[in-house]
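F.,

This is the one I mentioned.
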């Protein structure tokens, strides 16, 4: 397997390179953290700045620490990853949290998203997928890998109650017809590029619509918006 490489980002001559994305690792297995650190620190645009062995230690270590993205395990002693994620995300938009799972349909994935996680990643994912997840979440997009996104949507569809959430449905009233279209396509796991092709518009236009959808729904990112789409009944399983 070839070693992962960072994406090439053109910079003007003499310009200082952008600061690396600051990553924190939270996992009760030291060997897992060591492996993640080795892969992440091999990239010039990424840097591991903190580690913790459980949620309680993570909350202490990350208090007042400048971190961009947290890779958070779910099952840990003392404070689990779900509780730690909820407490971290309640403090503000950063850091963004990517939940680490062992199984494709971990029963805690939906709860983690509801707690404010920006996405999830399988622990046995290839190194390139993990690196892409960190960069993608840091850029503000919660679509990590198409296969992972589809699994999340399928799990979400079966985990949410059949009856629409009347309170959440009120949020949709603020959306224009085009923004509703975009939200439906987001909920089906479509990327900005794919949505642009579906609607015959420029990708920049889609990005503008996505930004407005997130703002009107009060969503942290695309995953949170997708949760709202299912909770309101705008999108239903199999539709």
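My design for it:
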């Amino acid at each position: 397997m070839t070693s992962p490489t960072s994406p090439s980002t053109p910079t003007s001559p003499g310009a200082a390179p952008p600061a690396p994305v600051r990553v924190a690792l939270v996992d009760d297995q030291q060997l897992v953290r060591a492996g993640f650190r080795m892969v992440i620190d091999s990239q010039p645009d990424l840097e591991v700045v903190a580690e913790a062995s459980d949620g309680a230690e993570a909350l202490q270590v990350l208090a007042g620490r400048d971190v961009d993205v947290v890779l958070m395990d779910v099952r840990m002693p003392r404070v689990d990853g779900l509780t730690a994620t909820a407490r971290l995300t309640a403090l503000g938009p950063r850091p963004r949290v990517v939940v680490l799972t062992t199984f494709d349909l971990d029963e805690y994935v939906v709860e983690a998203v509801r707690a404010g996680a920006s996405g999830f990643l399988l622990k046995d994912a290839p190194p390139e997928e993990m690196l892409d997840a960190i960069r993608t979440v840091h850029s503000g997009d919660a679509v990590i890998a198409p296969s992972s996104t589809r699994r999340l949507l399928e799990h979400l569809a079966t985990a949410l109650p059949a009856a629409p959430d009347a309170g959440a449905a009120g949020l949709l009233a603020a959306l224009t017809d085009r923004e509703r279209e975009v939200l439906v396509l987001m909920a089906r796991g479509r990327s900005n590029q794919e949505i642009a092709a579906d609607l015959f518009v420029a990708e920049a236009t889609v990005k503008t619509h996505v930004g407005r959808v997130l703002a009107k729904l009060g969503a942290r990112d695309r995953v949170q918006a997708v949760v709202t789409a299912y909770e309101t009944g705008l999108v239903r399983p199999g539709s």
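The chain has two domains: 21-155, 163-232.

Talk soon.
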